[in-house]
Design a protein that fits this description.
With 264 residues, the chain is α/β, with parallel strands linked by helices. It has a single domain (8-263), classed as Rossmann fold. It has helices at 18-29, 45-56, 72-85, 118-141, 167-186, 205-208, 213-223, 232-243, and strands spanning 8-13, 33-38, 62-66, 91-97, 145-154, 192-199, 254-257. It is globular, with a radius of gyration of 18 Å.
Length: 264
């Protein structure tokens, strides 16, 4: 018997791999209904559908929408799918922002390289940062939030450390954290809490496309006191904890989930 009811929904933005998928599986295993928003090509769908079947196997309502979560049309499609799939009493208990769409061009070019431009920067900051607020506003306007909802975003060590090629994503993470604090203050009186999780270095598809990711993994493994890299399931477990009634007083926080990697 899980901790949640089918009337309590999780909306996972970026839920077909990595942290998002692990969270969708965890919350479904605890009784929550799940809506996954993802953007995958046809060639990836066999693997994606197998993972979604594992979520469905828990026996709770499940909705998946393969769309661009960053466009007005995509957001409208998700909201329509939620309204169609929810029970009359259903409401969004958890919104997880796990969108990984960022430009990794450097700000200074080596021979033959292209540098990041204003449009690249703006798109990345919106995609991985301020779109969190857009989604909160859209779900609120649609009347879909539960009276005790939690919003969770994912940041990274790049919010403090500069890596070559990571400038746009780092700016997005700083914006995400700032927007989350604003949500915590301004939506708090309306029953919506907002927090940020900072995972340790995790071997996800999003990490693998970052230049120097192998060195990042090796360095994190050397210094982690618990002797391994962070897993997506570690982060999913903390999302679950933040979703419980007992976490109702956690609001506006940044929570590191890294086994002590940050302090070692």
């Amino acid at each position: 018997m899980g901790r949640f009811s089918e009337a309590q929904w999780a909306v996972v933005l970026g839920g077909s791999s990595g942290f998002g998928l692990a969270t969708a599986k965890k919350l479904a295993s605890e009784g929550m209904s799940v809506a996954v928003v993802h953007r995958d090509r046809r060639g990836s769908m066999d693997r994606v559908n197998r993972d979604f079947d594992a979520i469905r196997a828990h026996g709770h309502p499940f909705v998946s929408v393969n769309t661009d979560a960053l466009t007005a049309d995509g957001m409208a499609a998700v909201i329509d799918a939620l309204k169609a799939g929810m029970q009359p009493e259903g409401r969004v208990r958890v919104l997880l922002h796990s969108i990984a769409y960022g430009n990794l061009k450097p700000i200074v070019a080596a021979a033959g390289e292209a540098v990041i431009e204003d449009e690249d920067m703006a798109r990345t900051v919106y995609s991985m940062g301020t779109s969190l607020l857009t989604w909160v506003q859209r779900l609120w306007a649609a009347g879909l939030f539960a009276p005790d909802a939690g919003v969770i975003g994912l940041t990274s060590e790049g919010n403090e450390v500069a890596w070559r090629g990571y400038a746009a994503v780092a700016a997005a993470k700083a914006a995400l954290e700032s927007v989350s604090r604003a949500i915590a203050v301004e939506f708090g009186p309306l029953g919506i809490r907002s927090n940020i999780i900072q995972p340790g270095v995790t071997d996800t598809p999003a990490l693998r496309i970052i230049p120097g990711s192998e060195q990042m993994k090796a360095g994190a493994l050397r210094r982690n006191p618990l002797g391994r890299l962070t897993l997506p399931e570690d982060v999913a477990d903390v999302v679950f904890l933040l979703s419980l009634d007992e976490a109702r007083w956690v609001n506006g926080a940044l929570i590191r989930v890294d086994g002590g990697e940050h302090v070692a």
